[in-house]
Amino acid sequence: MAYSYTHSVCSLLSNTPRIRLGPFTNPNLHLLPSSTRLSFHPLRFQGFSVKHTKKSLVCEVKASMAVAVDVFEKEELAVSLAKYVADLSNKFTKERGAFTVCLSGGSLIKYLGKLLEPPYVDSLEWSKWHVFWVDERVVPKTHEDSNYKLALDGLLSKVPIPPGNVYAINDALPAEGAADDYETCLRHLVKSNVIASSSVSGFPKFDLMLLGMGPDGHIASLFPGHPLVQENKKWVTFIKDSPKPPPERITFTFPVINSSAYAALVVTGTGKADAVHSALRGSQNSNKLPVAMVSPEGELKWFLDKGAASKL
Asked: What stretches in the chain show pLDDT beneath 70?
């Protein structure tokens, strides 16, 4: 079923063993039978498992955050991602009566396609979803570069999320104005308890951040070496010189991304293998890629295909 859809412009006032993770160096890591357990002293690994075509690694990086790294065939990745999102939707709609989820662009929407199939399409409480964008290109919503249009065409127009629960940017504004307007919207929704507030950071605490990654290791519109990576006051900021077109965008800042309850990184393709390796196996002393700086308050989970994981 297709839904007639408008949007709400934001124009408002398992059993996998846990392991401790020390500084990443670069040990040789190979696929092993599911019963195999390894210990690498440089990484302080205490567990590693592989199941069928998937390998799983769960790490405890700090007391407050767990990290899981799973490797899939592409079809299995979509199946697992849908279950992961659905489980969190059920958790938060039951606990707080709402599910705040932040989308990215790129191939992410394609991998969410299994949510449009049984059992999820008819069982999820779509009316309690509140949808935001981690970043957005400052283009009209009908433009092919629009992350809103990508999500609308691939997901949102096919499920009964109330239009008022979909928070698109005001594309009539320039980049700086659109960023300020989106932050005003978020502050209003935190004040009205639609979005939770982090007791740790004071920034908005979204239930789930769904993140992609570029071959250069950027996430959202936070690019390697760009000053915005260090922004720690604003909730939403803007960029006019994006290394990747289109040049003008708005983006959540790292304090917002890292205040989320859960974050998932969905990364596929051999062209991203070097950045994945750098993030998960890079030297502690090397300059961190933006993707390596993702550190939510709760759990971080990597969804990789074999290509993206090929250099781990």
From this structure: 1-65, 283-286
Q: pTM value? A: 0.83
Question: Taking a C-beta distance cutoff of 8 angstroms, is the pair 165, 131 a contact?
Answer: yes
One DSSP character per residue, 95-160 reads HHS-EEEEE-STTHHHHTGGGGSTTHHHHS-GGGEEEEESEEESS-TTSTT-HHHHHHHHTGGGS-
In this predicted model, what pLDDT tens digit does every residue of 125-139 receive, in sequence order? 999 999 999 999 999
Strands (E), the chain: 8-9, 18-20, 49-51, 54-62, 65-72, 99-103, 129-133, 135-137, 167-168, 196-197, 204-205, 208-211, 236-239, 249-252, 262-267, 299-305
HSE, side-chain direction, 13 A CA sphere, residue 117: 10
Coil, helix or strand at residue 166: strand
- What CA–CA distance (Å, rounded) separates 271 from 308? 7
CA–CA distance, 44 with 234 (Å, rounded to integer):
36
